[in-house]
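New to this. Please check this protein:
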Amino acid sequence: MTKLPNFLIVGAAKCGTTSMSEYLKQHPQIFISEVKEPRFFSSQAHSFPLNGPGDAKRESRYIKKYADYQQLFQSANGQLAIGEASADTLYYYQKTIPAIKQYVDEQPKIIIMLRDPVKRAFSAYQHLIRDQRETASFEEGLRKEEERTQNNYELIWYYRGVSRYYEAVKAFIDNFAQVHIIINEDIRRDEKGVFQNVFTFLEVNTDFTVDTSIRYNASGVPHSNWLHNFLFEENWLKRSVRPITYRLTSQKFRQQTSNKMLTRNLQRMEISPEIADILKGEFLDEKAKLEELLGRTLPWLN
């Protein structure tokens, strides 16, 4: 029997989707594809190739064929919730929503993660700095955004664009019966409550406690580019020692050690107060519309 996801974490990028998917994997009643960000639905929205620095390597990891996408879920074994997380599905909503309806038999439950739009934009910039793909200042990157969009760069380069959530969130709410919104800042305020609400939404056991001690996909400037590249990218040394480490250590230990080393090697950058104020002004109307849509006050742009 072909298995397909019954829930999707659709974005937004740099709002905590990677961490959320990794944390949900811990729950015995939840299955999430081992392939991180398969991006199958957004691959139906793209024209290829992607043309930004380093984009070709990222594109090579996209799951573009439906048969390959189906294969991601065949090892699910009795879990109640089967899903995947692709953080660009939200941004390309005009094409991904029809693709989801075409390829997934049942209407999946949709999880959307949102974050202060200014902090999200600057985190995306730091992500590209971390991976040695961005060479411009943040201010220059903002000026170049329209040009990069027209030249078909990967979504991570769209600092302003991806932080404009309202139209995409409204479209998902209008098109799917079950949509659950997670505000990233709420996790710090009430972590237990946020996860209990997610588990209730996914209809799994709500008594499960998630270990959130590992931080995933952190952004910043590497103290050592060599160490970052060694930890983050596949290489011959990792391949050679992998059989030994797999035999002697647990997956959790390997994951914790690698992520701690990655995070400690990164130094957070600070956004210019002047640029932050400009962006806050640009996102105020967007925030107001989203607050009306969601029926709540958002802890952003303060």
Notes: The radius of gyration is 19 Å. Residues 185 and 299 are 7 Å apart (CA to CA).
